[in-house]
Amino acid sequence: MKDIQTIQTEFLAIQNSLQNRLDCCDRFPISSVKTVAGVDLAYWNRDEKEFAVCCIIVIDCVSHEILEKQHSFGEITVPYIPSFLAFRELPLVLETVRKLTTPPDVYMFDGNGYLHPRHMGIASQASFSLNVPTIGVAKTYFRADGVTECPSVNESAGSTADIIIQGEIWGKVLRTHDNIKPVFVSVGNYISLDSATSFTMSLVGKESRIPIPTRIADLETHILRREYQG
């Protein structure tokens, strides 16, 4: 078995090779997007092994009706290495994608995209296999490149603040409800940050600060995790 240093070196080379293929522009008008998929995973340990379940929920962008649910379950064999989470999650994500019968126009991940040391969060790295626009919407602030202080944002719903690192905008802080903790939006690929942010806001319901696709995916992974654990 390869040691952690060797694995990290290989992962780093892969992410570096993908950076120049990122396209942070709108591939097509966001108004033409009809369906969106929310993606999330949940983990647990059993018998000294680590397992996860990935759930993908496809919804209608206008009615927010659930069009399809799919999931995959399996053992996680890739070790956890900070900033290389995509390598752990992608196998289950892609396995679940292959089960979909309703191809989504956009994938939304519970995680980051461009907001990453090499701009290769799960939303970005997955895009090269999915070939459609992807967005990262994280619940917690990713402290990239030693920048620990989260930008402040107005308390009213819809307010945003740029996340600027190394003189460049890597993402946005987005307040989805009045006086509620914000979320953190970053481009995955094939979409602009402004479009990713407005699209995310359009998919926020009354029940949660998290957009509907990833919220439902998150709820489903917890239900499925209990089932597999039990």
Provide an overview of this structure.
The chain is an alpha+beta fold and 230 residues long. The protein has a single domain, classed as 2-Layer Sandwich (archaeoglobus fulgidus dsm 4304 fold), CATH 3.30.2170.10. The chain is 28% helix and 27% strand. The protein has five helices and eight strands, in the order αβββαβαββββαα. Strands 3-2-1-4-5-8-7-6 form an eight-stranded mixed beta sheet, sandwiched between helices. A hairpin with a 2-residue loop joins strand 6 and strand 7. Helix 2 runs parallel beside helix 3. The longest helix is centred in the C-terminal third of the chain and has 18 residues, at 212-229. The chain is globular and about 50 Å long. It starts with a helix and ends with a helix. The model has no long low-confidence stretch (mean pLDDT 95).
